[in-house]
Design goal:
The protein is mostly helical. It is 54% helix and 0% strand. The protein has a domain of 31 residues.
């Protein structure tokens, strides 16, 4: 059933064929424990993202008032030449 136009009768035919081929499975709501676990997981993910944002803001908060970017001292393992 390859066609470029879309019509209500064509949609009805596609839906009828789908209903014939697919077995009906009644929706069952998730258990309360599953809902609570999902909520806790989403909250943990949200807090993790918030912590990352705040850690990324920290260097800006530590910048001097004149706007200069502080230079790091040279590392002992990589001496300046």
């Amino acid at each position: 059933m390859m066609s470029r136009s879309k019509t209500d009768p064509m949609d009805a035919e596609v839906l009828r064929e789908f209903a014939e081929r697919m077995p009906f499975v009644e929706w069952v709501p998730p258990a309360q424990a599953a809902l609570e676990l999902r909520a806790a997981s989403r909250r943990l993910h949200s807090l993790s993202n918030m912590l990352t944002r705040e850690k990324n803001r920290l260097p800006d908060c530590q910048r001097p008032k004149d706007g200069r970017v502080p230079q790091r001292p040279p590392s002992a393992s990589f001496p300046m030449i």
